Amino acid sequence: MERVSKETSAVLNLISALILIVMTLMCFFLWTKGIGTQGMFNLYANMNRYMPIGATIVLLLNIYRLKVGDIIWIALAIASIFFYHQFDTLREAGFLQNITLALIIFIVLDFKLVEFTKEIRVLFAGLMLLILLITAYRIFTEIPTTEGISIWDKSNKLQEIWINTNTIGSSVMCSSFIASTLFQSLEWTWAKYLKYPIYLIALACAWVVQSQAAFLAVAFFVFFDLWPNFLKEKMKWTYGIGYSIFLIGIFPLSLILANSNEIDLFTGREDIWKHFYQTLFKVKEQFWVGMPPFTFHRGTQILGNHNSYNATIGAFGLIGLTFMSLFILYNVWLLILKTDTQKTQWSFLIAFFGILLQSTMEDTLMAPYWIPITFCLLGLAWQKNKVTIIVDTNEYSTDFFESGEEINSMTRSQRHQ
After folding, report:
1. Keywords assigned by UniProt (predicted)?
2. pTM (2 decimals)?
3. pLDDT per residue over 335-347, tens digit each?
């Protein structure tokens, strides 16, 4: 795409970054404040409008940065809207649901294309840390206590504090992932050390609110993120294989677990999944393109899928799950195959895989109010730090938008002079 002037690009970039930060803050505000008031509920109910608008504006502001691969994915995203519109009656869906897959692609591209300078990353990471601290404060000051039972005891069963505890756990997980990965990417000594208290706060909060999925995801991230950067880089092929096996196998694995009477790995969610699959397979076309909204009744509770991959199949069928998985794998494998991927970028991929693991028990990949704070990690994995290359006493700086081929060309020409 045609370039714009450096000054104009800097202004557009700053506006774009601020819009993306505000979008993520809006998502976290829902869970940090709660949706108990009419005003907060209205915000919650309209997020499926606000998020696509914001994502589209940012994409338009950065249209000059698009590459061929990005344009192809945008075209596929738009085509998916028209494709699923053909099955609105079968799925009992409308435009706002049909654009969900496009929203995922737009969000990832937004966080990929916008240059998050170190100054912007400090601001973004600081805000995410503030969200985490506010959430932690509310957890430990508002958690209901039972005489004789510690809040750390697993028998202290909770379902809600100011909002559902699984939602609180998901918020803690996402804010800690974004904060720790952004601080690490700065490659400043003081910033690197901040990840350790973030780890501890996230683990403590997820444990206390009894959010099993969030706790396991944070524990997974902490374990692998503690590895030295050189080991993370050596393991890059493992990331690609792990992502591929997981995304290919998650549907058949969920189907097997749902129909097993012996295995209970997901705290009773298998009953929900079994009922979901029974409903899904009643009509052949539903399996391919989606079905009406699914709910599960357990006593007085009305529950959703509690599995993002089932939620994706329910809304968009196996075609939609395959489409989303291919987009994720495209980004992951492209980062792995690129020779100039920096060591700091691997933490974002580890964190996003933690999100995928947690999503086996929650609907965090499909809801418009979660998509910006989950899929942003996949987009941020493309962010790089500036590198200074010295050739014959002359310095050349490269940034996120300058390719290795351009650097090699400059180097060869300098040597011939």
Report:
1. Membrane, Transmembrane, Transmembrane helix
2. 0.90
3. 999 888 888 899 9
